[in-house]
Amino acid sequence: MTAVADVEVIAPADEEVLTPEALDFVARLHRELNPHRLELLERRRERQAELDAGALPGFLPETKGIREGGWSVAPAPADLRDRRCEITGPVDRKMMINALNSGARVFMADYEDANSPTWTNVVEGQRNVSDAVRRAISLETPEKRYTLNDEIATLLIRPRGWHLPERHVLVGGEPVSGSLFDFGLHMFRNAREQCDRGSGPYFYLPKLESHHEARLWAQAFELAEEEVGLPHGTIRCTVLIETILAAFEMEEILHELRDWGCALNAGRWDYMFSVIKKFRSRDWVLPDRIQVTMTVPFMRAYTELLVRSCHRRGAHAIGGMAAYIPSRKNPEVNEIALAKVREDKERESSDGFDGTWVAHPDLVPVATEVFDRVLGERPNQVGRLREDVAPDEAALLSIPDTPGSITEGGLRTNVSVGVRYLDAWLHGVGAAAIDNLMEDAATAEISRSQVWQWVRAGRFDEARVRQEIAAVDAGEEAKLLFAELALADQLVEFLTLPAYTHLE
Question: Catalytic annotation on 440?
């Protein structure tokens, strides 16, 4: 156990990473910002109760002046002007090296949905990121030596969401915010080094539900820059619009973070989960996950509005994840995967997105090629304003218009994917290859929440779900946890909260 003033580390840890000075920096952020964080989480609970009682979200009357104002975000730095292909992955050493070498313009190193937050993963992830910033990251295996190429992707960090704690570090006897722990350690250890190397501390911000939550990040940025001694606006950020509530406040979120050159990303998987969760009391039952494509009405409205909102403010709009994993052994599987990715990226690039996400290095060439055809020598298409798109509350809420059906195969897939992903997560793997798709916590959230919704709607009964769970080849702990989540009386807010208690 390590103690610094009122900071306690209650598990063995690498003291080169968790130095007293670094812990003190995180504690200062936590003391200053955590009371507001807790207030915002309480507001989430109040908002959910309002939705359960029949309220619907809409564009905020009180922020109409922001939406009609003539402001813009700070311009992107040189190494974030061209974001045509971004790759994501956990802060695992081998995966980081491969992602940085992948040919993508940006690599998002993920402490959140693609990372199982075991204490070992979290602390080793900080060391891995620091080594990557200094180009000192390498790995020796019996088969191969992994090192960085001369040209690598620009590094962005995704800390955990506001709702997640880091229970291994206590400040004043309470667990520190996982967001502030991930963010604060990175800022303390790497921000100056990144600036000295011609880049900077760049972040992806997950799970925001309002512009008030974005304002808390702005406060964190301002405080951290001051403490580290960096000029105001050095940090750059991209916000994932992955909740239905944030979709009604996209311009307000950009406005709160405008000094930090904010961009937006269409976080499609969590967005679908959010729709199920926020409208759980309504009879808005979605069909099989595979049928809820980006072309269904409510998803189309959300992505087009995202591009319009970003480009009006001089911000980049980044498209969603291509989760397919190409097969190097099965040409037929590979051809199908690449065709689906190409179709998805052609839609995004033609809609005006400035870049897109992939989950595997083998998808970088096809995504890049598609955006190359649209962008040519331009770094982005921020100048394409999409004035043909009008903000439309009804379109964003057109969830009942989603075509498709609920099938036995859909139930089987959701249960199988959900249980197997939880099994991997409980064993410290946050990005798991399952049935030629890269699954993370977001897709597991869809799986378990859809099963919950379908049972509640009477499409399947508990016995049928338990039968499917029993058939999955996975550990008993994962099966019990999935059943607990999918068959609960009330939809659990995030699976990662109860699942976290199972981790070391």
Answer: yes
| Residue 79 to residue 202: CA distance in whole angstroms | 10
CA atoms within 13 A on the CB side of 71: 18
Question: Between 408-426 and 476-486, two packed helices, what is the crossing angle to 10 degrees?
Answer: 120
- Per-residue pLDDT tens over the stretch 13-49: 999 999 999 999 999 999 999 999 999 999 999 999 9
Instruction: Give dist(CA 393, CA 406) in Å, integer.
Output: 26
The full DSSP string for 125-155 is: HHHHHHHHHTT--EEE-SS-EEE--SS-PEE
Q: Residue 172 carries which DSSP code? A: T
2-4 and 7-9 as β-strands: parallel, antiparallel, unpaired? antiparallel
Helix (H) or strand (E) holding 268: helix 268-278
Other beta carbons within 10 Å of 460: 19
Long-range contacts of 45-52 (CB under 8 A, 24+ apart): 47/209, 47/245, 48/278, 51/278, 51/279, 51/281, 52/280, 52/281
Please, are residues 254 and 316 in contact by the beta-carbon 8 Å criterion? no
158 is catalytic: yes
Query: What's the mean pLDDT when you consider all of the chain?
Result: 96
Tell which residue, 277, 161, 212, has the closest CA to residue 39: 212
CB neighbours of 452 closer than 8 A, spacing ≥ 6? 276, 485, 486, 487, 488, 491
Q: Which of 92, 110, 270, 440 is catalytic?
A: 440
pTM of the model: 0.97
CA dihedral 136, 139, 140, 144 (to 10 degrees): -110
Domain boundaries in the chain?
A: 2-395, 406-500
Q: Please give the CATH architecture assigned to the domain spanning 2-395.
A: Alpha-Beta Barrel (3.20)
**Of the candidates 328, 353, 374, which has an alpha carbon nearest to the alpha carbon of residue 337?**
328
Q: Which of the following is catalytic: 84, 158, 289, 313? A: 158
Architecture of the domain defined by 406-500: Up-down Bundle (1.20)
